[in-house]
Design a protein that fits this description.
homodimer, 323 residues, alpha/beta, Arc Repressor Mutant, subunit A, Rossmann fold, three-stranded antiparallel beta sheet, 40% helix, 15% strand, DNA-binding
Chain lengths: 323, 323
DNA sequence: TTGAATATTGAGTAATTGCCCACGCGTATA
DNA sequence: TATACGCGTGGGCAATTACTCAATATTCAA
């Protein structure tokens, strides 16, 4: 059986090259050299130096963080926290017109995760799936924290049987040396019966049990509009999506769909959602990470009913949630 | 009443400005906008946008991190360079638990030598002896550079009369087609008188004279602990080693022993060391190549007194030198 | 209110960077 | 062995960014 060739790039970047890239990136961003200076220090041409710097960026070796309380963001955060009785809110700046749906959120989530994992006392951290969290994990730096536990709260098998593209826990485990518990399940099982069967598996049971003990969880929020992630990724059919919309579902967290009041939809695909239940918000901090106009309704619903008690979003979304 | 002339500038940066700077910095570094785009988004001129970004940097609102082992090395290198006023420092990654005492260093030294020899202007390069340099030369590729001169700074005859195992210049000459000047002497002569006699030989005199003119030298550093290379290789007896230890000698370069302050020991075996003197650090670059816990004290001593003005070492050793 | 000192701004310009393209070296293939 | 292919490289140029300078705005004290 032929392995599918690595998506897209054929170039195998060997270690030496990445080393040089890191070196160039350091000289450029940390030491403030010009690319000409880097070139002479590394003994390469300026163009090559430029490529190395660029490689360091594209390989995500350089991480830029900006920790400054921007008054506007702080204001939104405080008002959101008050309005919805949240335990924790972070609002990052918006870049009007930028197409990236995770820009800023991913960095903030990464910083939050690093903060969680830097605790000296053991923590059990739950994590969902989705584009936002995947992007966040890419921003993470390597952390050694074997005393923590990381548990996936949602299945991560795509409908075609492959590990889903958004297998966040797997990517996380590559960055963080902590015991991690993936959930090798589809997000939505074929039937309620199949879900029961799957959940009885030994490995899954352990993960699910651990999922109920998480102290901090970070989850994405999916909308149920025409380009709902559940639909786009093939977890539900178009008919199922329309049916959900018809009963008033506006969003989902970990696959659990809910209406505009944040009430979890009875029956329908929720009978087949294989994910763990949302951790208890009285004992755990459940942070939703999401932004974007199409998600506003879903986020608002989740906040209203306190499906989550923490939020990381951007200015535009914050404004919409408050308006 | 004159206002105290603020050293630099009297910048009174109010909060709004820092906010804008943070926002500009965010849009620039995180969102990847150009300064033109930032200008239009923030409603200011391009120059102002540039100033805001620059302010965000100078106020350290943006924090750049590099996630790569190399980054740590670069950091150590910069700190060592500052701490000891060195002209050149390279720190290579450590491989914890690896027994090889030259791993990484040898490769780095080889690369440095190749860089020296790739210069188009003629260079006189000095070289010491020892395991580290021997391993480095083994890493060298063949180079044709007849316009350079290579001169041995230390004797390379073993106590038993054979060419010492670490006859670096000999091995170097096999790789590099440049005029080379070995020093067919023991590292330590039998007596001060014998040293004088040996140094009067025509061939030796020429090599010694050339040794004083080297522009770049690479030397090893030996410790004087129980397994001091000078003792293990039979250049000094156990009694002589103990005597050296008793007067506080902690290391040696080219056979010249020195104490923890880097002061060259008076008398004792230094009266019989047949090596060239260390090149003048005001006019030449003298790079020490060494790593390992047992050498830390020796290296630190050499750096303190500026016996060398360049260093190639590894992370662990760098950390120890800084700690 | 005025004047002086200081800060801020925009224009112009130099420096730096990003990117495209053609070349050359090495490797795989017929 | 000859040929094609791919990858990396450096040249050149356009875009972007950094800096200098003079003009303008602002602040503070008399």
């Amino acid at each position: 059986m032929a392995r599918r060739p690595e998506s897209g790039k054929t170039k195998d970047i060997n270690k030496t090259k990445l080393d040089d890239a890191a070196r160039a990136g350091w000289l450029y961003y940390v030491a403030g050299n010009t690319q000409d200076e880097i070139a002479s220090k590394l003994g390469v041409s300026r163009q090559t130096a430029q490529r190395l710097v660029s490689l360091a960026v594209s390989e995500k070796l350089v991480k830029v963080r900006l920790d400054h309380p921007i008054a506007q963001c702080m204001d939104y955060a405080a008002r959101l926290q008050a309005a919805y009785g949240l335990d924790e809110v972070e609002v990052v700046p918006s870049d009007p017109g930028h197409p990236d749906t995770t820009l800023g959120i991913a960095e903030a989530v990464a910083a939050r995760i690093e903060k969680i994992l830097s605790a000296s006392d053991p923590v059990t951290m739950g994590i969902g799936t989705g584009r936002t969290l995947k992007a966040a994990v890419e921003q993470l730096s390597f952390i050694d924290c074997p005393h923590h536990f990381i548990v996936s709260l949602a299945g991560n098998i795509a409908p075609d049987g492959s590990a889903a593209f958004y297998n966040v826990v797997f990517n996380l485990a590559n960055k963080v040396s902590a015991p991690s518990f993936p959930m090798p399940l589809p997000v939505i099982a074929a039937s309620a019966g199949e879900r029961a069967l799957l959940h009885e598996q030994a490995g899954i049971g352990r993960t699910l049990a651990l999922a109920q003990k998480v102290q901090i969880a970070i989850v994405g929020v999916g909308d149920l509009g025409p380009s709902a992630p559940l639909y786009e990724d093939g977890f539900v059919t178009l008919d199922e999506l329309k049916a959900l919309q018809n009963v008033g579902a506006v969003g989902e967290i970990l696959g659990w769909t809910f209406d505009a009041e944040g009430r979890v939809i009875e029956g329908m695909i929720n009978e087949r959602v294989a994910s763990a239940r949302l951790p208890d918000r009285d004992n755990a901090l459940v942070i939703a990470a999401a932004k974007g106009g199409n998600k506003v309704e879903a986020i608002r619903a989740a906040l209203r009913r306190r499906l989550v008690n923490g939020l990381i979003t951007d200015e535009d979304t914050a404004r919409a949630l408050l308006g």
